[in-house]
Amino acid sequence: MTTTHKTLPQSTFWRITEDIPESLKWTLMVSSIIVPLILWLLISSFAGIESVFLPSPLAVIQALGKLAEQGFLIQDTITSFLRVVGGFFLGGLFAIPLGILMGTFPSIRSLMEPIIGVVRYMPAPAFIPLLVIYLGIGETSKIMLIFIGTIFFNTLMIMDAVKFIPREFIEVTYTLGGTRKQVLFKVITPYIIPNIIDTFRVNMAAAWNLVVVAELVAADNGLGKRILLAQKFLRTDEIFACLIVLGIIGFALDLSFRLFLHWTCKWSITR
Questions:
Q1: Residue 243, exposed/middle/buried by CB under 10 A (0-12, 13-18, 19+)?
Q2: Residue 122 carries which DSSP code?
Q3: How many helices (H) and strands (E) does the chain have?
Q4: Residue 37 phi/psi, 5° resolution?
Q5: Which residues contact 30 (CB under 8 A, 6 or more apart)?
Q6: Distance from C-alpha of 117 to C-alpha of 163, rounded to nearest angstrom
């Protein structure tokens, strides 16, 4: 009995896990930005929607220029950025060692995973009233909100990365006379560095979501505060402008993490 195998037709666009030509790659990437902008322009111009509900791209650009001239754009962006960096990387300082220990030692995982599993399902914004009561409305409460909202997810993702290290690596180290300390610091930790960078890249988005929420509740400046002020006066063009700035910052950070991964962990690209 013979079995016939159907050969899939050659396709450039629908390649599975294979690289596509650079020309197609850049065409698709540019299209992902240009097409939505064109649709936005057409809808705002010809759909009969009032500008207070959907400002045109030109109006948003003008709002960006106005905020920049007034000095608000740079000031708010820097303020929000520093809050995100402070809270996120403070959480990272705790998440990295805790995640590695939980992934390495089942005893630590059994001790910590239940409580982390409970707390991580508590919405971080729900802690805002407590943070305001305990820490006031200054910078500390905003940084701690980002800390609370990101540390647990970072920890669990790092823990999972450790769990998937090939067992052979650890067994070979013991066979060669290695100790638990050497396994931890010379095998496990170097192996998961790329995963840590990817974890931070993914969860950085949550930090930006939280800083905007914090600034909407209690802040004197920041992009979230600027959005709230624009909402009070129905300046939707300024709201769109701030959202675009947030998107650009997020894209830049994501690209920075990818470049950092490429520069520091070239050995992991083909892993």
A1: middle
A2: S
A3: 11, 0
A4: -65, -40
A5: none
A6: 17
pLDDT at 55 over 80: yes
Contact 131, 143 (CB under 8 A): no
When pLDDT is averaged across residues 18-30 and rounded to a whole number, the result is 82
Asked if residues 122 and 180 have their Cβ atoms less than 8 Å apart, the reply is no
Task: Decide: 131 and 144 in contact? Cβ < 8 Å.
Answer: yes
Residues 6 or more apart from 143 whose CB is under 8 A from it? 83, 86, 87, 90
Other CB atoms within a 10 A radius of the CB of residue 84 amount to 24
Burial of 74 (0-12, 13-18, 19+ CB in 10 A): exposed
pLDDT digits (tens, 9 = 90+) for 78-109: 999 999 999 999 999 999 999 999 998 999 99
Tokens (6 digits) for 214: 């914090």
Residue with tokens 């896990």: 17
Q: DSSP assignment, residue 8?
A: P
Q: Is 16 helix (H, G, I), strand (E, B) or coil?
A: coil
Residue type, position 254, single letter: D
Alpha carbon separation from 97 to 146, 189, 265 (Å, rounded):
19, 9, 19
- Residue listed under structure tokens 């197609």: 24
Question: In which residue are the tokens 């929420």 written?
Answer: 213
Count CB-CB contacts under 10 A for residue 229.
15
Q: Do the beta carbons of residue 170 and residue 183 sit within 8 Å?
A: yes
| Chain centroid, CA 152 distance in Å | 14
